[in-house]
Amino acid sequence: MDPRRFDQTSGVLKKRGTVLAHSTFETGTDGWVNHFHYADAATVISRTRRHPFHGSRALLISASELPYNQASRYHGASAYKRLGWPKEVGPQSLSGWFAIRAGTGTSLLTERKYPFSQMWLGMDSQLPDGTSRAFGTVSLRDNGDGTCSWWLKGGKRGTGANAETRPDVETSGTRVWFTGLNENKANGFYPRLTTNRAAMFAGGDYYLEFQVNGKAFDLRGLTGIPYDLLLNNGSHDMFTGGNNMGMGMGIARSSLNQDQNVVQLLADEILFTVNDKIGAGAWAQHTSSRPPRKETASTLTAPSTG
Hints:
This protein is mainly beta. The chain has 4 helices and 22 strands.
């Protein structure tokens, strides 16, 4: 199956580019390995016949099932896949079908208590000479008020004394764009994150567009280049030049609903493309002459449900 059929191409993204990786998990884990699991789990990633979106297998990412106060650190699990650095340095997109499963709990649905604190999807890109690294990540988070919404990892604009650090940004209008647990049936949802790697060289907007199911959100102008100071200055997972396309494909348990010991993320049809084609107005994101746009993620409002 070609998952590009689900992409919205009437906004910033016009057409996906070169397919660098397409994981269906039919015959194996396709190079995806454990990462950041801190999970105290015997098996963090595996393949499962349960709830594949297409075909007969999906990837299953499982967090710790120990009591919450005994599990370690972030109570989460994730997987990543290493790639090379493509010749083209332009827009890139990561997408896939995902579903969240949880253990049983009488209060899980009636009180809108989510079994996860967040699930996330992202791209870790580092320049070939190791001088710059970007962590473009979008995460679905429990807001603690019975709602979930999608957030972008914060960024940094400028250098030296003029540098401005921006916090994580909630993408306005996304609170209704989550399939939900629906009696723990693991209904799938389709997120796509499109970023501009050229911003690592020339500055400008790194985030371009985020899509979830049938709705796309223009992300330009919201943040600078997303970064993680701990990883850049630490020894964990250091590498020079390349992409971790699943740096943030994972899930973390909920501190608000600690009795939910079983939390799993199912992933299928993961697609990573480079040299994507975007609209003329979008390609001008790293110039000062970008034409004004009518709608941005910061101005979008939730569609009417009535």
